[in-house]
Amino acid sequence: MTTLLTPRSPALRNGWILTQRELLHWVRQPALPIFGLLFSIMLLLMFGFLFGGAIEVPGGGDYINFLLPGMFTLTMLFGLEGTMLAMSTDATKGITDRFRSMPIHSSAVAFGRCGADMASSVLNLAVLIVGGLFIGWRITTDLGSALVAVALLLWLRFALLWIGIFLGIAFRSPAATMAVQVLVWPVGFLSNVFVAPETMPGWLGAIAQWNPISATATATRQLFGNPTGVTSGWMTEWAVPMALLWPLVLTLVFLPLSARAYRHLRR
């Protein structure tokens, strides 16, 4: 460990060591990641089978096939508060200060957190995809398009992680964490995850269409060959480019902010 943590060690190598630390915590205390996965499955079953029969998809198509890509996207968002809480807890308890005193790259802590959460997201996404296939969801395009859809989902998750990392470092109070936990819900629901924006009032539908969550959900529906709920408008042609652009913008904004917040972290 001492040999690896030298001033000349690259950030990614240091980050991988800290990623292993986080993964080891989850192995020893698996309750939190398991609860998060079960919560996503509960939402899927609730909307798919309790409410799904009353929801029509504009343009036609099966609601389960419409819902699943939206649920995949929403799962990428729901991990944000967990990332924030983990970073905030480490900073509050002085663990982050210990890392700052060690001869490791200054960005290794954030990359370690990011790596662990990305690994968790891959596992959660795989479980949801398998579960979706069991309840009737189908991919009707080729394997390449499906892999691009998965890549877009993880790309969104990567961008959202930096928001959580920044908030966890910059705002370490329990009240801030609770506020983010509350705000995640309207951000996720004010999108096309569960219903198409065309069924909403005009002003609300416009907001939903510009939600980054909606861009990724629509793009993955197209790539999986599922009903998109979009019959007209710019989203029919620009969903995939927007699903690439939105996470890029979020990353370019919040990754530097995370680095700055870490450098100015009060001991």
UniProtKB/TrEMBL annotation:
UniProt cross-references to Pfam families, sorted A to Z: ABC2_membrane
Please report the name of this protein according to its UniProt entry.
Answer: Transport permease protein
- Organism encoding this protein: Mycetocola zhadangensis
Q: Which GO terms describe its cellular component?
A: ATP-binding cassette (ABC) transporter complex
Which residues are listed as membrane-spanning?
31-51, 63-80, 122-140, 146-171, 178-196, 238-257
The subcellular localization recorded is:
Cell membrane; Membrane
Membrane topology listed for this record:
Multi-pass membrane protein
Give start and end of each ABC transmembrane type-2 domain: 31-265
One Gene Ontology BP term is:
response to antibiotic
InterPro entries given in the database record? ABC2_TM, ABC2_TM_bact-type, ABC_2_transport, Nod_factor_ABC_transporter
GO MF annotation list: ABC-type transporter activity
Q: Which UniProt keywords apply?
A: Antibiotic resistance, Cell membrane, Membrane, Transmembrane, Transmembrane helix, Transport
Per the record, the similarity remark reads: Belongs to the ABC-2 integral membrane protein family.
> In the UniProt record, does the keyword Transmembrane occur?
yes
